[in-house]
Predict the 3D structure of the following.
Amino acid sequence: MRQIKAVFNGSFDSIENIKVSPFSRAYTFSDSVYEVLPFYNKKLIAFESHILRLQRSVDAINITIDSKKVTDEINQLLSSSDLENGYVYYQVTRGQDLIRSHMYSDQIDIETFGYITPCSFETKKLNVMLCEDTRWGRCDIKSTSLLANVLSMNNAKSHACDEIIMHKDGVLTEAGASNLFFTANENVYTPALTNNILPGITRSILIEALLDSGIKVVEGDFNYNELHKATSAWLTSSTKGMAPIENIINIEHSLSVDDSLYISCKEIFDAKFFI
Ligand code: PLP
C-alpha cells in the first residue's frame, strides 16, 4: 500500500503514525476549516487564491494561522512527494479541549493537518439529482461541517448519481462539492456568490478565462426551472475540473454533453487550468 505523506501540527510523517485526540474540536464539533489544493505536473494550481480563501475561512471562525507556515508545509508535502498530479488537503482545527464544551477556551492551540494524494483530473460525465439545499447559512465558509452535503449526496448515490444540484426555495445554489454553470440562449449562467455558496476557486478561474475570451457569464439568482431550457450544464471544482452533466435524473431537461458552447468553454478552461 502506498504510504500517504502527511503533516500534523508541523511534524511530517506517514498518515498511520499521526494520532489525534478524541477531544479535538474537529472530532466533536467539526470546529475546523479546510482547503483542497490541486497540483498538475507538480505545480500548484491557483495556490495564492487557495491560501487567501483559507485565510478568509479562519478569519470567519476566529482562528489565527501563520499563513507562511501553512504555505511552507504545503510546498514541503509537494516537494517530498513523487506524485505528478493530485491535491493537498489542509485542515485547520480550533484545537483540543480538556472536556467537550460548546464554548471554547481562549487558551487552546490550533491543530493543523495536511496530506497529499493523487488525482487524475479525468473528465467524467455526471449523473446528478436535484434536491433541496438543507445546509446552514454560511456555506461561503469552507468548513468541515458537511453533514447535509454527505446525506444528500449519499441519497443521490443510492439513485446511481455522482453529484447533486441544490436549490434553496427554488433558487439554485451549487452542487454538493462543486459549483454549477449552465448554458441557455447562447449565454453562460452561474448562481451569484452569496452566503449560501462556496466561492469556488475553479469557478473564478473559469469565469475569468471565459471573460478574457469574450464569452459573457451571467451571475444571478436562477430558479431551478431554468434548467428545463438549458442546453448544457457542468460542475466545477479543484478535483473535477470542469465536468459536464449528462443527466439530471428527477427533472425534464435537454442537456447535451456535445453542446457547442459547452465544448468551447471546456477548451478555454482546460487551457487555463492544466498548465
Ligand atoms: N462548492 C462546494 C460545496 C465545494 O465543496 C467545493 C469544493 O470542494 C466547491 C464548490 C468548488 O470549490 P473549488 O473550485 O475551490 O474546489
